[in-house]
UniProtKB/TrEMBL annotation:
Family statement drawn from the similarity comment of this UniProt entry: Belongs to the TRAP transporter small permease family.
Compartment(s) of residence: Cell inner membrane
Protein name from the UniProt record: TRAP transporter small permease protein
Superkingdom, natural source: Bacteria
Stated role: Part of the tripartite ATP-independent periplasmic (TRAP) transport system.
Species the sequence originates in: Piscinibacterium candidicorallinum
Keyword Transport on entry: yes
Xref: PANTHER family: 2,3-DIKETO-L-GULONATE TRAP TRANSPORTER SMALL PERMEASE PROTEIN YIAM, TRAP TRANSPORTER SMALL PERMEASE PROTEIN
Domain Tripartite ATP-independent periplasmic transporters DctQ component, residue spans: 24-154
Length: 169
């Protein structure tokens, strides 16, 4: 199960990376179009869709690597059972919020498909297509938070502090 979950998080991160490459392609296409006097409609909109997809698809991988921004002032002041209780409370709250967000993101994509909602930009893209990236990223994030909560409850969660937070610049 651990390999499956880690593969899910890594796969979502790879999709996020592909989205970033897509953003680069859209920006380069737009620049080349201006230089060579041709226009590809929708490059701005597609760059935005891909950027949103990249952001959402990378959330779970970032969480699992301990790179999300956390305010640890209170938790670090605690020790023992109080610290563990605070961690569990924070993970419960985050899991609940992530699950609600995943539900409504998936619902938004589904409703956009049902209502044939299209972009108001000149590309007229059906909005459920770019919303899939947000929904999938939110669902994978919710799974990652459930994973973190279960690991914490079982006492197997790693409490690594990223090296970047140790620097004081």
């Amino acid at each position: 199960m651990r390999r499956l979950l880690d593969g899910l998080y890594t796969g979502a991160a790879w999709l996020a990376a592909l989205c970033m490459v897509g953003v680069l392609v859209m920006v380069l296409l737009s620049i080349l179009g201006r230089l060579l006097h041709f226009h590809v409609p929708g490059t701005d909109a597609y760059a935005g869709y891909l950027m949103a997809g990249a952001g959402f698809l990378a959330l779970a991988h970032t969480l699992k690597r301990g790179e999300h921004i956390r305010v640890t002032l209170v938790i670090n002041a605690l020790s023992g059972g109080a610290k563990r209780a605070a961690e569990i409370w924070a993970l419960l709250a985050a899991t609940g919020l992530a699950c609600v967000f995943a539900f409504y993101s998936a619902r938004l994509a589904w409703q956009s498909r049902e209502f044939n909602d299209i972009s108001t930009a000149n590309d007229a893209t059906p909005l459920w297509i770019p919303q899939i990236g947000m929904a999938v990223g939110a669902i994978v994030l919710a799974i990652a938070f459930v994973d973190e909560l279960v690991l914490e409850l079982r006492g197997r969660r790693a409490h690594d502090t990223p090296a970047e937070s140790l620097r004081n610049e």
